[in-house]
Design a protein that fits this description.
The chain is of the alpha/beta class. It is built from 10 helices and 20 strands.
Length: 380
């Protein structure tokens, strides 16, 4: 068989179960056979550690010293992807923070070109803004927050940029515009919003089915006003991204979300910024500077500005600090984001017919190797 490779691992998590002594074949980037209770053969690539589905990050602003807003190019996208591959990410949505429409178009072009050039791991784009709430803008720049216009629709209607995810504030976008996005195949998440419960619910009824970094930059759940957080927790058909870094959300508060939502409806995101994969402790961010201290990124204007979280650490924190079983912690980083982004027919699990995207973890859940389409992308 052309382009065939066989692998052996003593322990594999396939997305549902832990399997022992697994031998699997990859042909042209896909898993073509997978057999348990096998033995290592001389021709096999021996994977030493726990083999699990590759991690899928739907919110990645930067990495490797690059920020998508500042480097809206194929090179910028490649740099970000390479930085996160070291931590087990095999698929991502490069994420553009609120910016001028020209930068949105450049970022869209960058992703389109990355897809044409086959840049491993790029599966679409996440536009976080610009149709957000000023009251809950966080580190986003107020000067670029605006109503939706024909220019944005022109970008959102593109069919060459993979899966599009849009984060918006429902108080600033009409339900019919949410429905229009959904009809285009766009995933709509509510975030950076100060909406009341009723307004958020109208957007959910119109087809919004996700919430961006649950709890952060959204109206809270209170006794007399459920807010956007209440809407997120109440609607079983919606999914929530969660930043499990110990800075954005208390670990007990993470537990509450996981307990409240049906299985499969909370997935891990990093909201990562340029320092991931570097030794940098500050970077320029629009007209401000963001500084890293004690694992936390803070803007000169005082607010949290993304994270230096990576997906392997998110899994580790979910398992060790939030006390979620290892199999479920791994699913929150692979299967569940794949299902949310409508990519689970290709990635998110290790089954026959799926893309051979996997990570090899040591006993401490650190990444030893990252493989995309059966090709070694990173080795420790």
């Amino acid at each position: 068989m052309s382009g065939s490779k066989t692998f052996f691992a003593a322990r594999v998590f396939d997305g549902q179960n832990f399997l022992d002594n697994v031998r699997f074949t990859v042909t042209d980037g896909k898993i073509t056979s997978l057999d348990c209770q096998s033995q290592l053969a001389p021709e096999d690539t021996h994977l030493r550690g726990l083999v699990a589905p590759g991690f899928i990050d739907l919110q990645v602003n930067g990495g490797g010293g690059a920020l998508l807003n500042s480097s809206p190019s194929v090179e910028g996208v490649q740099t970000i992807m390479a930085a996160h591959a070291k931590y087990g990410t095999t698929a991502m949505l490069p994420t553009l923070i609120t910016d001028k429409v020209e930068v949105m178009a450049q970022a869209a072009d960058a992703v389109a070109n990355a897809l044409v050039e086959g840049v491993a791991g790029i599966v679409g784009i996440h536009f976080e803004g610009p149709h957000l709430s000023v009251a809950k803008k966080g580190a986003h720049s107020e000067e670029f927050i605006r109503p939706i216009s024909a220019e944005e629709w022109h970008i959102l209607e593109r069919k060459d940029i993979g899966q599009i995810l849009v984060t918006l504030a429902p108080e600033n976008v009409l339900p019919e515009d949410v429905a229009r996005m959904v009809s285009l195949g766009i995933k709509v998440c509510l975030g950076h919003t100060n909406a009341d419960f009723a307004t958020a619910q109208k957007a959910v009824n119109a087809g919004a089915d996700g919430f961006t970094h649950l709890y952060n930059a959204m109206s809270p759940l209170t006794s007399r006003e459920p807010g956007v957080v209440g809407c997120a927790l109440l609607n079983d058909n919606t999914s929530c991204g969660l930043i499990v870094d110990g800075h954005h959300v208390d670990y007990a508060t993470c537990q509450i979300a996981i307990k409240a939502k049906p299985a499969g409806k909370v997935f891990l995101v990093t909201d990562a910024m340029p320092p991931v994969g570097t030794y940098d402790n500050e970077f320029a961010f629009f007209d401000r500077t963001v500084t890293l201290s004690d694992g936390k990124l803070t803007s000169t204007t005082g607010e949290l500005a993304g994270s230096v979280l990576d997906m392997a650490s998110a899994v580790k924190n979910t398992h060790q600090k939030v006390n979620i079983a290892l199999d479920e912690s791994l699913r929150m980083a692979s299967l569940y984001p794949a299902q949310y982004a409508k990519l689970d027919n290709q990635i998110g699990a290790l089954n026959q017919g799926k893309q051979a995207d996997f990570v090899v973890l040591d006993t401490e859940l650190n990444v030893e190797q990252t493989w995309i389409k059966g090709q070694l992308i990173f080795s420790h």
